[in-house]
């Protein structure tokens, strides 16, 4: 069997998430890698003809960006973030609904930004706190703590 | 009316891309301050490039940017040649000097784009790039009072205070306050916990600020090896903020050797120091992408 570095040993389910352009890119990489580097031993198993097929079925790691709710109504909860823009608030019509009177109806927007998410306070009454700082907006980083009213979240950056 | 303050570059001295600085950022000094529709840009370090990109995404028919430079050291001007709005004819960049007729910054800024340093000459920038001055704070900019304060830094540097409708923001980077204290270095070293006597003129300049953005490059342990380099101890900046009754202190100009964890440790030291003096001061580390609203 082929020997692939562990990041490429992914499930068939995961491979469905690879966009078409990325698959093309993987194929390009696979073809490129068929030519061993001069200093690499040829028996490394990285560069065989059969290698292309599992590479196309595989994908890079795909772990979604997540808000882990650790306090407030509905906690504990894991909220996977997807899409370009999401609104979080007390209203049932929001994308992420937190039924707490301490939140405004539309409290905060999450926007995709440079591979992560950016939060924007939508003029909420009780504000958005990032690691204790009241912010109007902020680009999220792994491990950040967000507090909105009595709801507290930890942001986990995906890959 | 509100002030919006957004950090685009918070690092001192040199850009520091990489995993260990990902949270607080690796771009050098650049802070956007918006007051209603008026845009101030404090320093043009490498963070300015991304600010330029962001401005072009906003729905603005033209851009007028009021540039307040602390000084002309590389880490405060390197982003300017990459500030895309400066290449577009409908935009305007006002480059302010401090006193009436002071156009030094405009002149020095153009110097970094001579052909020996950069492929595009300053004269080829198509926007209106105007040399102007603050006339010692007597000339408000769109109703915002802008004052300046000369700081202690090799070659000198300036702090700026922006005020309107009772909101005050002070941008004060590259200031070795420790060299201006009433007591000598040795006297302070013997009792680091004692509150330091910051010059009254500086305290008055900063007094009552809703937000002080201040150079806080060194820890108490690091500073003795960097005396004269132009940057203070973070703890001395806390003393200034406490004495001046500042509400929020943003530690800025992070040392290029400091990782995110180092920056967070300094924040904790500074918060402990403010508590020691019984102050309600809130201290945090400036980080790229963070935006505050002050009203």
Q: In which range does the helix fraction of chain B lie?
A: 10-25%
Mean pLDDT of chain A: 75
Q: What gyration radius of chain A follows from the Cα positions, in whole Å?
A: 21 Å
- Percent helix of chain A, as a range, is 10-25%
Mean pLDDT of chain B: 96
- β-strand percent of chain A reads 25-35%
Please give the order of strands in the largest beta sheet of chain A: 2-1-11-10-7-8
CA(first)-CA(last) distance of chain B = 7 Å
Given helix and strand content, the structural type of chain B is alpha/beta
User: What multimeric state do the chains show?
Assistant: heterodimer
Radius of gyration of chain B: 18 Å
Major beta sheet summary of chain A: 6 strands, antiparallel
Low-confidence stretches of chain B: none
**Unreliable spans of chain A:** 1-44
Estimate what percentage of residues of chain B fall within beta strands: 25-35%
Instruction: Count the E strands of chain B.
Output: 13
Order of strands across the biggest sheet of chain B? 6-5-4-3-2-1-13
- How many helical elements of chain A? 3
Note the gap between the termini of chain A. 28 Å
Helices of chain B, by number, come to 6
